[in-house]
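Purpose: get a first structural picture of the assembly so the mutagenesis plan has something to point at.
Setup: four entries, given in the order below. No constraints added.
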Amino acid sequence: MSVFISGEEVEQHASRDSCWIIVHGKVFDVTDFLDEHPGGSKIILKYAGKDATEAYEPIHPPDAITSNLPTDKHLGAVDPNTITQVVREVTEADSRRAALVASRPPLDEVLNLHDFEAVARVVLPEKAWAYYSSASDDEITIRENRLAYQRVWFRPRVLRNVATVDWSTKILGQKSSLPVYISATALGKLGHPDGELNLTRAAGKHGVIQMIATLASCSFDEMVDAAVPDQQFFLQLYVNRDRDITKRYVQHAEKRGVKALFITVDAPQLGRREKDMRLKLVGDEATSEVQKGQAVPKDQGVARAISAFIDPSLCWEDIPWFQSITKMPIILKGVATAEDAILAYEAGVQGIVLSNHGGRQLDTARSGLEILTEVTAALRARGAFPSPAFDIFVDGGVRRASDVLKALALGAKAVGVGRPFIYAFSAYGQEGVEKAIQIFRDELEMNMRLLGVRTLDELRPEMVDASAIRSHVGSQPDDKLYQNTYQPLALAQFRTAKL
Amino acid sequence: MSVFISGEEVEQHASRDSCWIIVHGKVFDVTDFLDEHPGGSKIILKYAGKDATEAYEPIHPPDAITSNLPTDKHLGAVDPNTITQVVREVTEADSRRAALVASRPPLDEVLNLHDFEAVARVVLPEKAWAYYSSASDDEITIRENRLAYQRVWFRPRVLRNVATVDWSTKILGQKSSLPVYISATALGKLGHPDGELNLTRAAGKHGVIQMIATLASCSFDEMVDAAVPDQQFFLQLYVNRDRDITKRYVQHAEKRGVKALFITVDAPQLGRREKDMRLKLVGDEATSEVQKGQAVPKDQGVARAISAFIDPSLCWEDIPWFQSITKMPIILKGVATAEDAILAYEAGVQGIVLSNHGGRQLDTARSGLEILTEVTAALRARGAFPSPAFDIFVDGGVRRASDVLKALALGAKAVGVGRPFIYAFSAYGQEGVEKAIQIFRDELEMNMRLLGVRTLDELRPEMVDASAIRSHVGSQPDDKLYQNTYQPLALAQFRTAKL
Amino acid sequence: MSVFISGEEVEQHASRDSCWIIVHGKVFDVTDFLDEHPGGSKIILKYAGKDATEAYEPIHPPDAITSNLPTDKHLGAVDPNTITQVVREVTEADSRRAALVASRPPLDEVLNLHDFEAVARVVLPEKAWAYYSSASDDEITIRENRLAYQRVWFRPRVLRNVATVDWSTKILGQKSSLPVYISATALGKLGHPDGELNLTRAAGKHGVIQMIATLASCSFDEMVDAAVPDQQFFLQLYVNRDRDITKRYVQHAEKRGVKALFITVDAPQLGRREKDMRLKLVGDEATSEVQKGQAVPKDQGVARAISAFIDPSLCWEDIPWFQSITKMPIILKGVATAEDAILAYEAGVQGIVLSNHGGRQLDTARSGLEILTEVTAALRARGAFPSPAFDIFVDGGVRRASDVLKALALGAKAVGVGRPFIYAFSAYGQEGVEKAIQIFRDELEMNMRLLGVRTLDELRPEMVDASAIRSHVGSQPDDKLYQNTYQPLALAQFRTAKL
Amino acid sequence: MSVFISGEEVEQHASRDSCWIIVHGKVFDVTDFLDEHPGGSKIILKYAGKDATEAYEPIHPPDAITSNLPTDKHLGAVDPNTITQVVREVTEADSRRAALVASRPPLDEVLNLHDFEAVARVVLPEKAWAYYSSASDDEITIRENRLAYQRVWFRPRVLRNVATVDWSTKILGQKSSLPVYISATALGKLGHPDGELNLTRAAGKHGVIQMIATLASCSFDEMVDAAVPDQQFFLQLYVNRDRDITKRYVQHAEKRGVKALFITVDAPQLGRREKDMRLKLVGDEATSEVQKGQAVPKDQGVARAISAFIDPSLCWEDIPWFQSITKMPIILKGVATAEDAILAYEAGVQGIVLSNHGGRQLDTARSGLEILTEVTAALRARGAFPSPAFDIFVDGGVRRASDVLKALALGAKAVGVGRPFIYAFSAYGQEGVEKAIQIFRDELEMNMRLLGVRTLDELRPEMVDASAIRSHVGSQPDDKLYQNTYQPLALAQFRTAKL
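Result (structure tokens, whole complex):
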């Protein structure tokens, strides 16, 4: 509608008093928004009067700017011939990273999911690694998530005819080639230019269900548009303070064929993830001024910057409203006690995900696998487990098909896997995700044979010894691969002194 | 009253036979006191005939010399124009320390309480670090204090409206902006020239209660004088062999408005803290003579030197006397068993602190958190818990707001925090203490939301799983930040040999 | 029968279209077999038209080629005068290894079984070490096998006359000088040119029973032919998809005097052993092509290459057939639960080996020692333990005579030891195996005296405290020798970059 | 009686056919004894025709040669003027050791018993350190001995008048200034030229009871002769195959006033101590010949060499004989189960030492402290505990007075301490032992006050929490001092290769 705005005009608005920026070829007046920007005003002012697309893209959902700014601040399209290209310098870090990418192990040397993490840790830009890998506080829960699986031991059966084994299943009525779904994770473009599309394409090719994240770097429609016929999606939802936005989002998803709604209930506020926060702070020149008496800056890492819209008042009383706006099955993601599992069951939702949000929320929260043993016992006591109308999922810490089989033996319908898939595409793009799926398949075939089960239905609680699940003591011997990939938290760094 | 004494005259008394020193502009005859000095005579003789103020100040309460010397040894004021200034050389260690201080991380990079410790460890003079950080024997208890919190896991509730959360409380009837009080710690001037005044000022500004220590470097009145209107204090008491001194001290405190009396009951003698003792000995030339057959020197570290006055005969029979001399609530600090908790309750005091004195007394004593579970069970069995007339506090090992919430869920009214605040002002002065308080606030807000509680009253025992509290096995995964800040004990050092 | 084929003629068939190779002086047409070769076609094509014996020998049983190729592809003997000798270059690795072998500790400095492993790790070619030492997935089970023994503590009796002690026994009716048999292990020529004959000769000399492995490098008859009079063997059996092959193999063994048949039941498919797989991949030039889009190669380590013939459909229904083809006692090797132990007992076999296949199959499977406590309890409850008709064996993780005594005290009849004997001959040939047997003797004498038992019959369950066997927590203090010999798993390696 | 033999004559007998040696100025014909020498013939032949005193002394009790050789082989005294002095070269190792001794920390920097060990480890000759510090097999028990104390936690009482505390006691009717006795240890001259006399002199000075060892380097009479008036001794007895020797030894001791007889019952054969054995072997040129096919040498470390006389047939039936030859109280040292404790009680002896021989015998035997909890329960059930006629002692792993108090609280009458006193005199001679005793005193005073007990009688089981004693899991946080002094076992060493 509007005529083109020239780049020269935009450049006039390069101050705190009048600040325009260009994103995806559109000009926006962000002057009034500067102080509301969850990531702080400083970073916007750096692009005042300029094209900010490249900086904007990896850490914002595509429609973040249009949905946050009033429409009268959408000034129109820029004349592409008139803008000065911001030539991004190739830094030494870029060159070093390129060399590392070139020397990464060939994909067929990746033997397990840990390998993806080991490669991603090296090839990812520091801030991307910090965002993906960080967890809250002392990162005890994220490590417990992994160790919990190793406190459960197998009781395998022998001399069963396991010539053919079948690990396909149905999840919430949808066919899945694996008892694993791709769990929602944010900001995929930090790790790869195609972002979450890597997941969509690999999932479509291999019959795996992807849970689309509210905070994905790719837009919802980009992902759904990339689907092959019969490819299915679930939707992960952070509930907005503005319920109309949420309603539109949910109903749009349902219309586009999404098959289930996973409402995140463990994140009224996003956790303090210190690896992420620390990186944001160190090396940022302006921060030293703070010591001189300024107010504490808002800037607390990517995670908290992008999540300001989440509604901390979300509660049980809101559930009927969700049931009124959609016919999709509703799953509550982040249930952590038997008490809340029972409330969920009584609220008439279709399932729960026992989760601690990948260790990114409340530290020293228990692992999903531990919660599973408590929840199945409590539901069983009420006649609500097993139940065809109420499914239990688990996520967090899964790195082996043997983990998946342990969760299923203990009552889970399927497990969610998040970070390993991000690391896979960060390191190898779509092929990495496909390889990760193939690793699950290979390991499932092997482990089902060794356990003596031909189909997932044959899994039984007595095939595992979970008696130590509550002990929280590292079941030794420990996991050498995990220990070599886990990066310990760092303390505050001295600037120059060699200690 | 007396006329000025000239510096020249003082200088005449520079031997073991007649030894005068100047402290804070006053001249004292310490000849007869030399052999009684808990820190040994050697250190005094170093200042014979000279101004000893700079050495005296950080490790003595201001009135130590006046209250320990008979008044006839108080010779009067020195003529300030006549004393030779002892010019303190700037040593290489001083320069190195100054460089380290200059390069310390900006305060806004401090993300958690561990960071203060990491910075303090580097910028503190070795002896100050040794005094603050040391604990008794094998330092097993000090480490257990931290680990005990990590054996308690959360059972968080979801879908509660946590839009607003409130972590303010009342402690012994006094308003507190946090369920945390600043616990008593000694010798603040070792870490910062303003000593404990850093605590007083920050506490006043942020509505936190400070417990004033008997062995503070700043005098009681200095601290109370620095209070803002409505700022409240508690008093920590080491009971003197001379009960008159104790009586005067307590009644003075009450008159000045102190709101509660915390009597330390776990220190009939101060513990052997070997880090502290070792540092005192190594590098001290004179010690090599000992090997030649001298008597063992009294010199056993700062802690034991300053505590000779404490009465080891203090016992339950003394409690009524305290109740007779003050109307302040009396709290016994250092109770370690259910048996003694019941005795305290029956003695009619107003509360107890479950504590092991920061791991500085009996090694392999249990953590306050562990004792808490035993004490609440025993009191509850007698109908004495919960009780508005008898409060339970816990201290030792608290580094996260999540620790505070665990202690409160298990029945504590508030928790005491000591070392983290010392490290905060040692590293950053008053601003450091303010930042530490702010960290507690941020973490409390976050963690209360994630736990599903809006006020501290909503905390319930079933929100934590404390079933492993007595196991004493490191709840793995462990605390990487803690492990990086904890300094292992060292063994005796060879003088020159490179081993 | 056939006349000699000339080397020149063989050299004409050096392509994928017509591929002949020479093995042990015979010419084979492997053209049609190329794509079926479990180790991939690439490795065969490297020897197309040439003598492949040296490469073939260490990783194939001698009759692998004759039994896998149809007889019309056996083209006849080559004229030995006409073949071009493939001169194997002495590589730098060979020279380095020779130097290491020369500097290995004299045999009398080997004090325990760990020492053999420490030496073997250094002197073995990398691939041999990888094949022998690797276990499945995260190698948790292989380490647990060792640690399980250390969670069982002794309750030794004193003041018993132990002037003479006797550790000889009978195993399945055969005399054995030790309560230990040499368990089946594959591919002995990887470690020493004489392969498993080292075991046979040492076993014969010292009255120990060897279990012959289906996948041995030496042929069954070579080993039996090397026996001394009265030397006894057991046979380990992987069941072939083609039961006729299995039948011939078993009946041949029985005819040659083998005394028991151990059917492996825990390996319907051989485990993923990533150390082995990783080594196969790294450094192999061709693999980099895979990244360019080729199909995933079959090549997954030696273990899986050589085991393609194993029948995954083997089941309980097959047991009567085995009973019909042999009169040898039948033992099921790899039972892992009380449930299956009972099934075995009811199936009328003569015993079971509680085993997890040396940690090489299902990871996080439990140790044989732990299973033993469950199995004896369950059998005892049915009146089936102790029973002269049904023996229980254990293998995995045994490194000390004290381990043997613990297993026997808990109900095992004897224990199987595998890797330590391989490491012994890899490091020192036959003399190494003899030394290993001598170490068992020395330690048995010592430990029986210290336990207060004169014969193995005097061992009692109450001589050990196995109450922690299910805890899976590393019984600390840990095993320093073991920790120094265990090689942690490695992650995928970057090609050139120094990280 | 005999005339002097000239050195020249002795030198004529310097071969295997006729081998004379000089020890302590006497000439012995050892030709027939060469093959019986427990330490092998090689070492004797090295001194054939020469004065062997210096090599003989530290590792033999003074009368070893006279009591082992028939009297007709005692050839008489050598003419001191005629023997060629064997000038011992000062080796580089000697010089290095002298430098280390000179630089050892002054004694007043030794703050705890661990410090002695840290110093001794550096200043002791390698073989002495190996002999003293080594334990059997994987050295699991020796480390468990220490850790067991740390699984017991204190429940200290407060507000008891502890102005004066008293840690003196009576042990088997004898006054002792400490609830600690010096336990028997062998070969004291390896560590210090005065050997066990360092213990005798320090014990006499400080009112501590020394248990004299059968295998001491100093003779029994040397030690008893060095006593001060009223100094008391116990006697440790290895029972000789020749009971007459034992009878004479015991009755001589009783006549000289020894107050109790401790019969070692856990050593029918001395354990394999691999640190000790390894050192004996490495660097010994002749051993390489063994590999060439010789018989295995007898040479298996100092411990086994000196203990060949011990009778492995000693049993319960022998007890009445001991009771018939002495009126001293008889204590069985090395009881390890409740069953044997009851047998001992029924046999009418006066007490038992719960011990695993300092971890030097059966590895994975349990700690004395753990056994104590089992034994007191079993005896109490029979009305035999507490009993004035039957005392229970514990040894192994004690390093702190707090350990002593834990053992006494759980029912021990006193504890034995061995290695720490050896390390003390190895590092500092008699003064070291005195300092060790003083450390016990200081720590006892401190810890009794902090526990709230004034006398040892006030110790109660409920003052400790021993509920984890059987868990065998390292009670974390662990013991940093201990970990820094414990030297891990080493594996066999390559000769030249740098690995």
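Residues 114-270+307-471 of chain B form a domain with the TIM Barrel fold (CATH 3.20.20.70).
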